[in-house]
Design goal:
With about 600 residues, this protein is α/β, with parallel strands linked by helices. The chain contains 18 helices and 19 strands. The protein starts with a helix and ends with a strand. It is a single-pass type II membrane protein; Single-pass membrane protein.
Length: about 600
């Protein structure tokens, strides 16, 4: 057994097999060493790849925002469309208040004086010219009292209102002495009388509404008392009254109390007035007075000077009977009582009522209360003969809607609507962050343009105001801001008014309710992203050009892709433009576009001139 096992375990290996194994091992060794030997092609490739893969390349990365110069990423786009000047007849073109179109609508309830915008096929795709000889308006406060004749060449009011001291023509300028139909001795004396009843001086009253404003002298003289008045009047046979107001540097829009609601939120104004505005307050069961009540803040004041107040003195001048005027005043008194307004003053030509602070503090029988769940849904909505209800309160002394601080503390205090959580997605903390953001952004704007914040830019518009942060950061006596809240954006206009600022609802697919050349500076954040699928961007840009003064400035901020499109369109509009990085650096996709409108004027034959 032992010999058998030994013979099997010691079988000798063949020499050939051993040599094969040794040869394979040597071959494998040589193949492994060959790429590192310096003699093969693989070594050259490895060296080349090593050269291209420099670990320190990050130091030289190009962070320059290529969107500054990059072409729009659409193939074979044509050059920017060049917009030609409109005919000289359109110098004072107001798209939605044109006389020819207005006369096609009923005169009942002033419907024909309301907004009637052209259909898309009738929109003007041209640049509205300035009149020959146009000059930059006088700086504030001189501008309050003087306007260049060449800018608003209409003398009719100097004749029609000569006795009432509205406006005088002297040489090549209009002078505004500060008079009015019901205050021929001047707006200051009139406001002094109001201030004996209404707390104007201490900041309690900050926002005001002037219905049927004329040339807005009431609003003009309130400004030095730190009160902002929103003035409106229709475009009618009193040619250019709102245009005069804006040329003076006073907030105003074209508007009328007709059949649709005013474009302001409920509880917006601390004070409202009618100074011989000739609005038929007792017509349609008190419809117009109910609309004033909607926009008047609880505890706010309404002033009526003119018919029928002091009818015993003026009934012959007004060519109306004593009986008729007495009946009208009695009806106004009844309506005021129904609205929970308490009469505080009547002397001479002036009567003043104060709205109660809540529903608990007034005694009235059952009334027709408006059923709408959203009292601020007003854009093109018909007025109803119903009373807007007060917000709920828990005590008789509580102010419905919330108590406001006196101005200027009111400007940055948390507005009641935000404190109560009434604005979706906005908290007290996010509101304060928004304020910080806009203060930071305004610093950036002033670095770009040092004239921002000076009287060079008196009339300012924010096309997408949000919470009013831009206007609050800019707030000073040197300028005012029209805060526009687009009808398709979150409704924050009530917050804007609670801060002591003014503004209006608007749809930017339509013309704004103002004359051409009425704003010095237009700011727009996110407007074009908001509207890029709603209407053509060129419509919005042409409307901006219409309302911007020659040599006025535009500041836009939006996503880079949208800004590239806007910059291309603006290139055909006689604007000098510059696309800039976000204040936080070039990697932020939001960019800033700054533009300055060139000076040019219209002339006969549709040609233009750049001569000053």
């Amino acid at each position: 057994m032992g010999s058998k096992q030994n013979s099997q375990g010691n079988i000798p290996r063949k020499p050939l097999s051993i040599f094969l194994i040794i040869g394979l091992c040597c071959f494998s060794y040589m193949m492994g060493a060959w790429p590192r030997s310096g003699f093969g092609k693989g070594d050259g490739i490895a060296l080349e790849i090593g050269k291209q893969t420099d670990c320190n390349i990050i130091i030289n990365l190009d962070f320059e925002p290529h969107h500054k110069v990059v072409k729009i990423s659409e193939p074979s786009l044509p050059k920017a469309k060049v917009f030609k000047p409109c005919d000289i007849q359109y110098t004072d073109y107001t798209p939605c208040q044109e006389q020819d179109r207005a006369m096609k609508f009923p005169r009942e309830n002033m419907i024909y004086r309301e907004r009637h915008c052209p259909p898309e096929k009738e929109k003007l795709l041209c640049l509205v010219p300035a009149p020959k000889g146009y000059m930059t308006p006088f700086p504030w406060p001189k501008g309050r009292d003087y306007v260049h004749y060449a800018n608003v060449p209409y003398k009719s009011l100097t004749v029609e209102k000569a006795v009432q001291n509205w406006v005088q023509f002297k040489g090549d300028v209009f002078k505004f002495p500060g008079g009015g139909t019901m205050f021929p001795q001047g707006a200051d004396a009139y406001i002094d009388e109001l201030a004996s009843v209404i707390p104007i001086a201490d900041g309690t009253v900050r926002t005001a509404l002037d219905t049927g404003c004329g040339v807005a002298s009431w609003g003009a003289y309130l400004l030095k008392r730190n009160v902002l008045a929103m003035s409106f009047a229709p475009r009618d046979n009193h040619e250019a009254q709102v245009q005069f107001a804006l040329e003076r540097g006073v907030p105003a829009v074209i508007g009328v109390l007709g059949s649709i609601r005013l474009p302001y939120p409920s509880r917006a104004f601390d004070m409202a007035q009618c100074s011989r505005c000739l609005i038929p307050w007792t017509s349609n069961n008190g419809l117009y007075l109910m609309e004033v009540d909607r926009v008047l803040r609880p505890g706010g004041y309404w002033i009526l000077s003119g018919p029928p107040i002091n009818w015993k003195t003026y009934y012959k001048t007004w060519q109306r009977s004593k009986k008729d005027l007495q009946a009208e005043q009695r009806q106004i008194e009844k309506l005021a009582e129904l609205l929970c307004w308490e009469k505080k003053y009547e002397k001479g030509d002036i009567a003043i009522w104060r709205k109660k602070v809540n529903a608990k503090s007034c005694q009235r029988n059952s009334v027709n209360v408006c059923k709408s769940k959203d009292v601020d849904d007003v854009w093109y909505k018909k007025m109803d003969t119903c009373i807007t209800p007060f917000p709920e309160v828990t005590s008789k002394d509580e102010i419905a809607g919330g108590k406001l601080k006196k101005f200027p503390a009111r400007l940055f205090a948390v507005p009641p609507q935000i404190a109560k959580g009434s604005v979706e997605g906005i908290t007290a903390e996010s509101y304060q962050e928004d304020n910080k953001l806009w203060k930071k952004r305004l610093i950036t704007y002033k670095r770009i343009n040092r004239l921002i914040g000076t009287t060079r830019y008196r009339n300012v518009m924010d096309m997408n105001a949000g919470l009013g942060g831009f206007a609050a950061a800019l707030e000073s006596q040197k300028s005012w801001v029209m805060n526009v809240v687009p009808t398709i954006a979150k409704n924050t206009l009530g917050v804007v008014y609670e801060r002591g600022l003014i503004g209006i609802y608007h749809d930017w697919c339509e013309g704004f309710s103002t004359y051409p050349r009425t704003y010095d500076l237009i700011h727009a954040s996110g407007v074009f992203s908001l509207y890029q699928n709603k209407c053509q961007l060129e419509y919005i840009l042409l409307e901006m050009d219409r309302i911007l003064r020659p040599e006025g400035t535009v500041i836009l901020r939006d996503e880079v892709d949208v800004m590239n499109k806007v910059k291309k369109i603006a290139g055909g509009m006689r604007w000098n433009t510059k696309l800039m990085d976000h204040e936080d650096g070039p990697l932020v996709p939001e960019k800033i576009l700054v533009a300055v409108k060139q000076y040019w004027v219209g002339s006969s034959g549709n040609s233009t001139s750049t001569d000053e």
